[in-house]
Design a protein that fits this description.
By secondary structure, the chain is α+β, with helices and mostly antiparallel strands. It is built from two helices and five strands. Strand 3 and strand 4 form a beta hairpin.
Length: 80
Amino acid sequence: MREIGQSIVEAKARVQKIVGIPVLVKINGGRGKSSLYHGKVTALFPSIFTVELEGGEKRTFSYSDVHTKNVLFLKSKDTD
């Protein structure tokens, strides 16, 4: 569920702040299923962004995924 008072523009700004920084990516798969991956945001586009996962796999997400919390970025212990 999205946060009240938040907009897609704010979701884009949050993603722009973490470009190139190693983070823990939590992806909501629906029906209570979620997956955790280590990765970093590598590319930004007007409607989507690309995340390169630790194994070299690239996944794309929309900013609305961040807005609705289907994709969460958590602080990675590797950055400490």
